[in-house]
Known about the structure:
Blueprint: H1 4-22, E1 29-31, E2 37-40, E3 43-46, H2 49-63, H3 73-90, H4 99-109, H5 122-173, E4 180-186, E5 194-197, E6 202-208, H6 218-228, H7 237-250, H8 258-276, H9 298-309, H10 315-326
Parallel strand pairs: 3-4, 4-6
Antiparallel strand pairs: 1-2, 2-3, 5-6
Amino acid sequence: MATNWAVAAAASLALAMSAALQAQQAPSIRPAEGQTFTEVGRYRLQSNPWVNLHQRLLYEARFESAAPASLSDGELAAWKKAAEAYRVMLGKRNPIVDEQLIALNATLSEAHSAELPADVPEAAAAALRLAMPLYRVAQWQEDDRANRFWIAVAQPMLASAAEELAAAHTKAYGMPFPTHILVDVASHGWEFGAYTTGEGESAHAVISSLAPGTQGFAALEILLHEPSHAIVAPSAGAIGADLARAARELQRKPKYNLWHAILFYTSGELTRRALAARGVHYEPIILQMYDRGFGGFRQPLETHWQAYLDGKVSREEAVRQILIETTPPSQ
């Protein structure tokens, strides 16, 4: 999801856009006491040390990233012990779909003291207790600073455009956009820098503050894209149900990631429109993805889904045409 302009845009947004966007009529913005989280309308954003450590250890356990650089030899040995414990605990599971890992992240997200909640599984708790003193000394200040800067950049954009964009997504999907959106901003967000759990009215997103593809103006798109996962699914909910119905009628099997491409296109295009109305030229994230996982999708999406978003064809007709043009007939 990386975009070269996103990094540079973050600094200019924080300095130049904050005052201008907050001056517009917008939902209330309320930092909690001690600034542990920030609320903007339906969004609650936070930088939580337990979640950050958990996400860092998950990432290191699966993708073998480096430990914090400033650890001494003895501290590094302890850190590696915690990371190995996480590697064993994680196994082949995926935190996006595994119910125990989803529950663990949610529990840590509600932890706002130096003590771990009692219901954290012992395998995870032991590793977190071992690593947290090291993390607080060697890495947390840097991670928290980046997270809070990301939130400071995203906050005025949400204040200005979030409700408008939520309404646009509701219209596009024919299903209410989530009304309770918790965003844990962290240094790591699993494999691609962001993921979401939850369904219906509630969404819990983890978004990396360090991934270039989530920074700058792209932060606004990501903050609409991620909660959309609570209502959009591969074969059910918004888009998925439409694809499944069209697939049965046409006897065609959708490509495994077509639903996700439609989600990307929707949030990207709606965000582009909202920013254009505010004098900003924005290139949606999906433009960086057609040469990767979304090969073959660009023309059907820009023709038929764009026509749907423009109000020229029905959602059902757009989905049918996209399915016809991206999949061969079943044999």
